[in-house]
Design a protein that fits this description.
Arc Repressor Mutant, subunit A, 2 domains, 5 strands, globular
Length: about 260
């Protein structure tokens, strides 16, 4: 297992706290796709070269609330105990968030390379023919869904298939977590296609089960709920008050910005 390490880990309230940083990065390296770390503190101590007491003190800090944390989830705690009846095994609170950012960065790079190839091909094929008309919104959504993972299959190995997109359950989570936003009354094809694309994007990268995918979308809508801007509680830079809706939240560009924390205030 591995984790992509973000510079922000050294720029928050753990800055300069060597033991906590060493223990936390060790946990990130051992976390599974759901963000679970099932390791005993003694094993962590042996791997990172700290005493058991030092590791336990660091774990206590990582489990504690942090009022200065940039993430409101779980009152700023970095890890949550999986079972209060034993002294080891945790869930990394923001694991899904940062894995999704990594996935989005990878997708952007793929899109950038695809655009470069397209421009080169168009330049090579330029012979005075009429340019094609832009795709309709529905055709664009269909193309995006198939580009991400054709036929719902991840071809790294044939042992994993992206679960069918539970559109109605995702919609129910939207209404449950975001009652202040516009309700979805029409199940249009475009909305369903964009939702399917986002579902594939999240589940295929992490090899999520249906339940894990729904948990991730519950986290996503919960993140939107604490944004004053996205929920229309404060004005934007232009002075206008605006709020997001389901279609905007399922759009690829908007989706990435929300995950990256562009609208966290």
């Amino acid at each position: 297992m591995y984790a992509k390490l973000f510079a922000s880990i050294y720029q928050g309230t753990l800055r300069g706290n060597t033991n906590c940083l060493v223990v936390f990065t060790n946990m990130l390296a051992h976390a599974d796709s759901a963000g679970w770390v099932d390791m005993h503190p003694r094993a962590i101590a042996e791997e990172v070269g700290l005493s058991l007491d030092q590791v336990q003190a660091a774990i206590n800090e990582l489990e504690a609330p942090d009022a200065e944390s940039r993430s409101p989830e779980e009152a700023g705690r970095r890890i949550i105990r999986l079972d209060e009846h034993r002294a080891w095994g945790w869930r990394v609170v923001n694991h899904a968030k940062y894995r999704a950012i990594r996935s989005e960065e990878d997708r952007r790079e793929q899109n950038r390379l695809a655009q470069e190839r397209f421009r080169e091909k168009r330049k090579a094929d330029s012979n005075g023919s009429k340019p094609r008309k832009p795709m309709s919104a529905q055709a664009e959504a269909e193309a995006e869904a198939e580009r991400l993972h054709p036929a719902d299959v991840v071809v790294e190995d044939d042992s994993y298939r992206v679960p069918n997109c539970p559109f109605e359950e995702i919609l129910a989570l939207y209404h449950e977590k975001l009652p202040m936003l516009p309700k979805v009354r029409v199940l249009s094809n475009i909305r369903m296609l964009h939702t399917r694309a986002r579902w594939k994007q999240v589940c295929a990268e992490e090899k999520f089960s249906r339940e894990q995918g729904l948990d991730w979308f519950a986290w996503y809508f919960g993140k939107v709920a604490v944004s004053k801007f996205l929920t229309g509680k404060t004005a934007g830079h232009d002075g206008r008050v605006w709020c997001a809706d389901f279609e905007w939240l399922m759009n690829g560009s908007s989706f990435a910005k929300v995950i990256e924390g562009r609208y966290s205030q």
